[in-house]
Each structure stands twice: as structure tokens, then as C-alpha cells.
């Protein structure tokens, strides 16, 4: 079922899509996000540039421990050898703390640092970018940058401020340092449309080492829930700007503020006289102030960071709770439009165990080195998950056992409509175990899928109302053939578009053993499955599949032609040779939009080449094909053109490969927006007519 992972995954495990080689989300962070648990992003310039070793490392560890103590998951962001890591392992944290040539990475620096394979600590702006990309709404730091004194002439304004104006992440900080022009900083934040609120009992805006700056915040929030309510409102409005929560330094450490302020003034004068400018100013001043105060500034710095971590984690927990409550009541914090009905997915749920070896070959009969990851899959569940994360809310119909695996599945799938999933006593939830080599070759696969046979015609008939009101119904090939025939009989009577997603060559034949297949609208087979469909219909097929691209395309087009007499569209996945979309010609491409009536059509095909990827970068190959299909469906339902739909699918598949989960928990409508990648970077499709 799983072949070499060296090219685009366009079917479950039979080919692979390019891994996201820039952003890497740590499994603990990915798991927490998938389960809708609170996550707190943390920057890393405090590790690489803010404190000397070993204080930097101990502080980083302490901050992460504080976040965990508040029942949140820490996600320290850093760049390691050209990859942006969201969440660092113990070894990666140590590496950054000791990295002598670490770069201070702001938004401006990210492209160069990544392109050159460098390592560094992310500033507020770069951390916000990574946090937003990963889907983390709360970020804790020490203090943000601002408008420098004389900034009206030098135009020396931190990128933190403009990032807050365009990235919807809540930043919890101790205000801004007193070395900056605080008044102009607040004015600039207002211009950028950033909502600023002081945390506590007053509106006094803090100045890092001092709870008082002489300026006031526009607003004030008195506790974690009020702060979470503010952040939730900002996310719901979809204003695309951040929120700044300014947390004053704890009172017991504020007393040393006056002494530290005097040292700051001295350090500022020294930096000026020595010609220190730009991004080198802040690290110099912090180090010099620490010397002048004999370590008291470092103690205060650590104290306020600890306090920010505690407050920020409490806010993240309150926000997570509010979001869960909104979801359970049918609301959503996301600005994306939700389709509460109109899509039905019928198929299986699996608990997947993916064991990936660290060698190119596996030695049976002995223990092989490797890693094992548990995730939640099943073709139907994966497609419903993908659609749910892309702005739709499909009704998902399936079955599980009444066991611990089932409880874990329902907990993981809280973001989905699982009201159509039944728990059956005396049955086991489906499980699948795949053992793959380092380069993605399947060594062994085992599956316990008997529960799928309980998704019967009788059970599915309970959801006839939802079927009749649907725009699109997706059928997973694991369900019984009798259930498939039942759904297709309804589709024929009521002109409903049905998508068939076969799971292997044997199951591909299920709709085609009778005339029921003629009521299908879409199908997404690979070439072997297309041959099975054709052979079941009595059509001539080759005994051996061709190898050359020209022959592969010729065969796929030839086999598609008679099936398209009844089907609206075929999406044929061709492994390392890409994707072939076949159907009705419209405006120079294949028409993917749901059909309203059957008519004589001019047929054509568009071939989209695969994208190459290094096999070792792939974390999981079990769901990229389902991500492709789900995102294609989302694009179709949104009325996107064919190019956009296919590109959405390719982007979703890439995110799946980079995740330990079949459907990447960080998948969003923005992350699969085709326009975020330059047109010239996309492989050009090849158009052809079907005679």
C-alpha cells in the first residue's frame, strides 16, 4: 500500500508530496493543536542574544516548565540549519543556547537565514509569523520592540510593531523597554490598528523593568478570561491584526526599577558614543546594564519573563476553553465561513500506528531502530477532517467499537461533526499498523478493519435527510458494496453528486459490479485502480502497467474515456508522474464544478506534474492522498477554478507529509491558498483532448 516516498503523495501511501522543508512543528505541539489544547509560543532571541550562557538555557527551560505547569504546551520557536522549528526538543534548545554564530532573526532576516541554512533566535516578528503559520494564537515574550528615540528622523522602528499590525496573534509582554520612545510606540501601534490592553487593575502601560511608563494603554483586562475574551473577539472579527497584552513586572521586583533605569541611561549614552546602531543596540545595552547593576537587571528580567509565561499560559488556557465552548455550541472563532450542511462523508475511522525505521532495509526477526507514531486516520475520517479544517462542516457517518481507542478518536475529532459516528458494543475500533523503511518503502502492513462492515445500508438510511440536502457525498471504498449501492440509488433519484474514493485495487471494483456506478459524479483512482474499474466493466486492460510518462498518460486517457460517458470527472493519481484530471472541457480546462444535469460534452484532460521531495523529510505518508482529495473537494465547493483546486490539494498534501498526523492539525484555508506561492513556482499543467 505504501511505496517509495520520493515524489508527490497523491494517493494514500502510493506516492508522496514535497515536505514543507521550511516549517517544522514539534510532535508535542502538533498533538496539542490537534486536540484543541492550549499552546503558548515562545521566542528564542532571549536564548541566543538576550542572556549569557548558561542563564539563557536555564531561563528557557524554566519558562517552558512554567507553561507546562499551567496545563499548556510550550512551543519555543527557533531557526536551526535553515528550518523554522515551532517547538524545540531538549537537544535543539541546548544547541541554540550554545550557538556562537546564531543570527538574530526578524521578518526581514527569515528568507536569507533559511536560504543559507543558518541558525538563529527568532524575534517577536519572526515568532509571530511562525506561531500564526502553526495556528497558535497566544505568544509570550519579555518585551516588544518599538519606535527608537529620534525615530521620527532616523525611522528606526522595530518590525515587531508592523508585524502586530498584520498578523493575528496575541502577544503577552512587559510592554516596551524605557530606552525606546514609548509615546510614539503607542501612537504607531494605534496607526497599525493594534488593540493594546494592560493586564491588571489599571491602564498604566508598563516599561519592562518598571510598571509605570508615564503613558496609558487604551484598554485594560483584569484577568485571564477577560484577556481571552478580547483575543477571541479579535479572531472572530478577522481583522488580521494582533493584540498586545501588557503585563507589569511583579511588585516585588519593581523596586529595583529605579536603579536599573539609571543604568539603562548610562548604557544608552555609551552605545551612542561607541557608534553602536541598529539591531546591535539592544543586546549591548542589556549586557552593559547587567554589569552596571551587578546582576540585578538580569534577575528582574528573568522574573518578568517568568511572570509573563504564567499569565500568558493562563490566558491561553482560558482562550482554549472559550473556543471549545463555542465549538460545542455550534459557533466558531474562525472568520472562515462554515458550511453547516451540504457535504456528507461516509467511510472508516482508523487508529494508525506508523513505525518508521532508521535504515533503508528492515531485518525481520530482530529489533530494528526507528520511531513509532500513533495518529488517527481512516480514509473517510481523513477527508472529513480536511474539509472541516478548510471551512466546511461535513456530516461524517462511520462506526467504531466501544473501547478505549474509540474514546481517543472522539476526543481527537472534537473539531468535526461526529454525530453520525456510532459506537458498537462487542466490536473493535479499526486499527492499522504500517512498518516503513527510512526512505518510505512499506515493510509490513497489518489492519483490523472489520468494523467498517458495520457501516450498513440500514444505519446510513437514518441520515437520508442529510443525504437529500447535500451538494456532495463522498464514499470511502472501505464501506460495504450494499451501502454504496444504496447511496447511489438516492443520488440517481435526486441528482446528487457523489465522489468515490477507492482505497485499493480490490475495493475499486465495488460500485462497478452493477449499473450503480453510472450515478457517480467523481472518482479518484490511481492507475491500478482505474484498470480494476475498467476490467470490472469488461473493458480491455493491460496485464502490466507502462513505465514511461507518455504511455502512462495515454493509457489513463484511454481508460477514462468510456467511464466519462457517465461520470462527470475522474482525478487519476499517477504516483511520481503527477495527477491527471479528466472531464468536460470548459474555458480551456477541465470543468470540476458539480454538474446539474447530464449532457453530451467535449472531453479533455489536464496533467499536473508531481513535485520532487527528499524521502527523509517525510514524517507520515498515510494521509497526503486524502488531504489532496479533501482539499480538491473544498476548492470545488468554494467554486474555485481547476488550477486553484488542484493547487489547494497539492499544498494540503505537502502539509500532511510534514506532520505526524494524516491530516496536518495546522491545516487552514490560508495555508492552502494558491496565491501565497508565486505562479512561476507551480509546474505547468499539460492540456490534452480526449477523443
How would you sum up this structure, described in words?
This protein is an alpha/beta fold. The chain has two domains: 37-323, 3-Layer(aba) Sandwich (Indigoidine synthase fold), CATH 3.40.1790; 343-689, UDP-N-acetylmuramoyl-L-alanine:D-glutamate ligase, CATH 3.40.1190. Helices cover 37% and strands 19% of the residues. The protein has 23 helices and 26 strands. The strands form three sheets. Strands 1, 2, 3, 4, 5, 6, 7, 8, 9, 10 and 11 form an eleven-stranded mixed β-sheet that branches. Helix 5 (110-115) links the parallel strand 5 and strand 6. Helix 22 (624-637) runs antiparallel to helix 23 (642-657). The relative contact order is 0.11. Residues 1-19 and 329-340 have low confidence and may be disordered.
Instruction: Please indicate the percent range of residues in DSSP E strands (runs of 2 or more).
Output: 15-25%
| Computed CA radius of gyration, to the nearest angstrom | 28 Å
* CATH superfamily label of the largest domain: Ribokinase
Class by SSE composition: alpha/beta
User: How is the CATH topology of the largest domain named?
Assistant: UDP-N-acetylmuramoyl-L-alanine:D-glutamate ligase
Number of separate strands? 26
Mean pLDDT: 85
Low-confidence stretches: 1-19, 329-340
Shape assignment: elongated
**CATH architecture assignment of the largest domain:** 3-Layer(aba) Sandwich
Structurally, how many domains make up the residues? 2
Question: Major beta sheet, specifics?
Answer: 11 strands, mixed
